[in-house]
Amino acid sequence: MADPEVRKRIATRRAELDGQQAAGPVMTRQVGEAIGLDTGVRGALEPLRGRLTKPADRARLRKLPEGKFTARL
Asked: What is the pTM of this model?
């Protein structure tokens, strides 16, 4: 089972797809803001980007060529 932080990110992404926050693919910065990270700090998004890439590699999320992430439908 995924760790709680991954589950929180997935739940956030699903909520966005349901139209509560955003419609369509999101950038790493938007996910960071949604889970409460300080996105203004240089380098704060790189670990998050890596954490989003892992579920994308496992086909739980889809990473688009422009670097945006979306739920696998």
From this structure: 0.59
CA–CA gap between residue 49 and residue 55 (Å, rounded): 11
pLDDT of residue 25: 82
- As averages over each run of 10 residues, the pLDDT of the chain (73 residues) reads 72 65 73 82 85 82 84 69
Q: How far apart are CA 46 and CA 65, in angstroms?
A: 17
CATH level 3 topology of 4-71: Arc Repressor Mutant, subunit A (1.10.10)
Whose CA is closest to 43, among 56, 31, 53, 29? Answer: 29
Residue 11: CB atoms within 10 A of its CB come to 11
**Domain spans of the chain?**
4-71
From the list 29, 18, 30, 33, the residue with the least C-alpha distance to 71 is: 18
